[in-house]
Structures are given as structure tokens and as C-alpha cells.
Design a protein that fits this description.
Layout: H1 6-13, H2 18-35, H3 39-45, H4 50-58, H5 76-89, H6 91-111, H7 114-126, E1 131-134, E2 150-153, E3 157-168, E4 175-181, E5 191-197, E6 203-207, E7 219-230, E8 234-235, H8 241-277, E9 279-280, E10 283-284, H9 289-317, H10 323-348, H11 359-366, H12 376-388
Parallel strand pairs: 1-4
Antiparallel strand pairs: 2-3, 3-7, 4-5, 5-8, 6-7, 9-10
This protein binds acetoacetyl-coenzyme A.
């Protein structure tokens, strides 16, 4: 019996239109040609292939769910399928594509002035330029309103000083969205977001080494020492910063969740193939009920994740509130990706513990997804608050 490839599975779901499936097929072709043959080397050597971002731009993958300014203007469901296919090939590539499109470009597209959009979106869309999202700081992760980076008013604009941490694409971006506090006593209502060119005096970046996974993508620590920007660098108004960050994260979390369906799918594919090929006790591993149980568990997690991602995507396409549903999808799909990768290694036994098969890379890559763009614990707080109306984040 032939195994079903993911596109066949997507058809079986009867969730996706022919156009959406065509987009998934085109992204899969790109991944098969450009990513799969290279990924083992990129991962081992920690290579970031920036040419790939230009190719992704040419294919319309950067900010593909946005309209105008050169963006492809697909729906969110299609964007989710693209993230799935990218991540089934490599998490680092999906991360770069979604940080650029879901976080940096989306925030400019939604909150930027016409001039800011004209300046940045066409070149971010084509991949000629890269952009990143500077929210997290060394001392501020989950408590995103409590930023230490300060923006002080000057005669001609703003002076920004502070540190940013764990910033994907931070070493290669031309522009970074810097979230900074303008009036600490106002808490989240004092936050503002600035479009800071990384060539500005006082801006430096440094690569973060020693990551467990995401080896083919860039992660940086940023430092801003009295970086001067004009009034026109602010995205929206003073006080909009937190809303900009949270809206972008609603987008980013969706792309992370969608990508994790791809990891689950990769784990199923690799485990089914290995269980049929590897023999123990004179029969293929697939002959054993406990091995089939592990495969069934992975399929359950993959399919449930895909349904939850689809629901969040449909709500986005209908313009309906979707923060809670996005958090449900992000929580379930990311935890499922870690569990599937762990199970896939179990199916592979010792062979899964080394890099002869993709499953050890899946585990390394999946592990960050329950941390970045809001930990699983933060997603649970968002879901619990929506259900009860009680804010469990309120300080004692
Ligand atoms: N969209 C728009 N606005 C939103 C929103 C959303 N999804 N969520 C909240 N807001 C608004 C609220 O309406 C509220 O507005 P008003 O002041 O006008 O009433 C305001 O923001 C404050 O909201 P909350 O009271 O909900 O804020 P909070 O402090 O209680 O909690 C939180 C918020 C959910 C804990 C939030 O801080 C959070 O998500 N933390 C995690 C941060 C995170 O994900 N960090 C990762 C960053 S990126 C990264 O990983 C690096 C990378 O490069 C990929």
C-alpha cells in the first residue's frame, strides 16, 4: 500500500480549495529543489543562505498574505499551508520567512503611514531587504509590556537606547522594529514602535551561538546606544507599541503553528518509511502494534493541529477576532511537534539519535517553538483568561 504524501492528505481533509492546494504544491516544489538537498549541510555548518530569501521573495512567499506593495495577497489559509510546507523542509527557513512576513511586514502594513509602507514593503516583499522584530530583551520575555529599552524625545525625533535579545534575522536586516518605552509610568500605554535602520550610528548586532536547533537561521542580540531617529520613524503613535506587538504576534503565532504541522508531517513520513524498512525479530518494525501506536499518536497530533490551524486561518480570512483560537493552535501544534519528534526518534531507535535521519533535527528545531512568540504557558494564560474573564497575569 502506497503511503499518502501530505498533499493527498490535505485533499482528503476537504478543507482546502484547489487554489490553496496549488500554492502548497508550488511551495513544496521549491522546498524539494532548494531546501531539502542542502539542509543537512546548512544545519551542520550553521549556514544562513540569504539568497534563499530573495528566491522566496520572487516566489511571492514574503508577506504573501498581505495586499498591495508587491505582496501576493493570498488568504491566510494559503499562507498557513506555505508555512507547513516550508517547515516540513526546514524550520530555520520557515522562521526567516515568517519573521519577515508575519511580524515585520505585517506590522508595517497594518500600522505604517503610506510613506513608511512605500519605503519598506516593496523591498521586504521582494527579499531585496530583510526586516526583523525587536521586542524581547535580556530581562523581558513573556512580560512584554515591561521593556527597559527607552526612547527619549529630541528636537528632531527620538533617541533610543537598550538591548534586544533572541532576534531572528537581526544580523542581516536592513530595518528592525524596535519596541521602546517612552514614559515608564504609563506602563504598556507608554510603549512605541520605531522603524530603525540598522545602519544607524549606535546600532550594533551580534550573533547568538550554540543554539540547539534553527541552525540555518540567524539569531541576534541587538544593542542600541543613543540611536537617533526622526519623528517619521514611529509606527503609529506613542502608546500604540504594545498593540502593534500583540497584533503582529497574532500573525506570527499562526505561522509558527502552521509550520509545526509540517514538522508533525515530516515525523509521520519518516517514521512510516523507517518502520516498513527496518526489520527486528525477522519482521518489519511496522508489524509491531506498539510501533503502530506511536505512528497513530503522531497522526492524531498532526491532524488535530492542522484542523486547529485551519480554524485560526479561516477566522483571519473572515476578519473575525482570532487571538484565542490562534493561541489554541499555537499551543497544540507546537507541543505536538515536540511530541511527534520525540516519538519519531523512538520509532527510529538508535538511528534516530544521530543525523542520518531527519528526526533528530526535527526534535532540535521543534523545541524552540514552545518558547518563541509566546511560551506555551503564555498561550495557556491567554486561553484561560478568554474562558474565565479573569486575568491571571495581574501582579499580586
Ligand atoms: N491584538 C491587539 N491588541 C491586543 C492584543 C492583541 N492580540 N492583546 C492585547 N492587546 C491590547 C489589549 O487590548 C490592551 O489594550 P488597552 O490598553 O487599550 O486596553 C493592551 O494590549 C494590554 O493587553 P493585556 O492586558 O492583555 O496585556 P498583559 O500585559 O496582561 O498580557 C501578554 C499580555 C499576553 C502576557 C503579552 O505580554 C504576551 O503575549 N507576552 C508574550 C510575548 C511574546 O510572545 N514574546 C515573544 C516575542 S517575538 C520572538 O519570539 C522573537 C523573534 O524574533 C521571533
Amino acid at each position: 500500500m502506497a503511503t499518502m504524501r501530505p498533499l493527498d492528505l490535505l485533499k482528503v481533509d476537504h478543507l482546502f480549495s484547489d487554489d490553496e492546494l496549488d500554492i502548497a504544491a508550488a511551495v513544496r516544489e521549491f522546498v524539494d529543489e532548494r531546501v531539502r538537498p542542502e539542509i543537512a549541510d546548512w544545519f551542520e555548518q550553521g549556514t544562513v543562505d540569504l539568497g534563499l530569501m530573495k528566491e522566496a521573495g520572487a516566489l511571492g512567499l514574503l508577506g504573501m498574505h498581505l495586499t498591495g506593495y508587491g505582496c501576493a495577497g493570498t488568504n491566510a489559509v494559503s499562507y498557513g499551508l506555505a508555512c507547513l510546507e516550508l517547515e516540513a523542509g526546514d524550520s530555520g527557513v520557515r522562521s526567516m520567512v515568517s519573521v519577515q512576513g508575519s511580524l515585520a511586514m505585517f506590522a508595517i502594513w497594518k500600522f505604517g503611514s503610506e510613506e513608511q509602507k512605500q519605503t519598506w514593503l516593496p523591498k521586504l516583499c521582494s527579499g531585496e531587504s530583510l526586516g526583523c522584530f525587536g521586542l524581547t530583551e535580556p530581562d523581558t520575555g513573556s512580560d512584554a509590556a515591561n521593556l527597559r529599552t527607552r526612547a527619549t524625545k529630541t528636537d528632531s525625533g527620538w533617541s533610543i537606547s537598550g538591548q534586544k535579545m533572541w532576534i531572528s534575522l537581526g544580523n542581516f536586516s536592513e530595518v528592525v522594529l524596535i519596541f521602546a518605552q517612552t514614559a515608564p509610568e504609563k506602563k504598556h500605554k507608554g510603549l512605541a514602535c520605531f522603524l530603525v535602520p540598522t545602519a544607524s550610528d549606535g546600532f550594533t548586532s551580534q550573533e547568538i551561538h550554540g543554539k540547539l536547533g534553527l541552525r540555518s537561521s540567524d539569531t541576534a542580540e541587538l544593542s542600541l546606544d543613543s540611536v537617533e531617529v526622526g519623528e517619521d520613524a514611529m509606527l503609529g503613535e506613542v502608546g500604540d507599541g504594545f498593540k502593534v506587538a500583540m497584533s503582529a504576534l497574532d500573525n506570527g503565532r499562526y505561522s509558527v503553528a502552521a509550520g509545526c504541522v509540517g514538522i508533525c508531517e515530516g515525523c509521520v513520513e519518516a517514521s512510516v518509511a523507517y518502520a516498513k524498512e527496518r526489520e527486528q525479530f525477522g519482521v518489519p518494525l511496522a508489524r509491531f502494534q506498539l510501533v503502530q501506536e506511536m505512528i497513530a499518536d503522531m497522526i492524531l497530533k498532526r491532524d488535530a493541529s492542522r484542523m486547529l490551524v485551519y480554524r485560526a486561518g479561516v477566522l483571519k480570512d473572515e476578519g473575525k477576532p482570532n487571538t484565542t483560537e490562534t493561541s489554541v493552535a499555537k499551543l497544540y501544534a507546537t507541543e505536538s511537534a515536540v511530541e511527534c519528534a520525540n516519538l519519531a526518534i523512538q520509532v527510529h531507535g538508535g538511528a534516530g539519535y544521530v543525523d542520518d535521519y531527519p528526526v533528530e533535527r526535527y526534535l532540535r528545531d521543534a523545541r524552540v517553538t514552545t518558547l518563541y512568540e509566546g511560551t506555551s504557558q503564555i498561550q495557556k494564560m491567554i486561553i484561560g483568561r478568554a474562558a474565565t474573564g479573569i486575568n491571571a497575569m495581574t501582579p499580586l
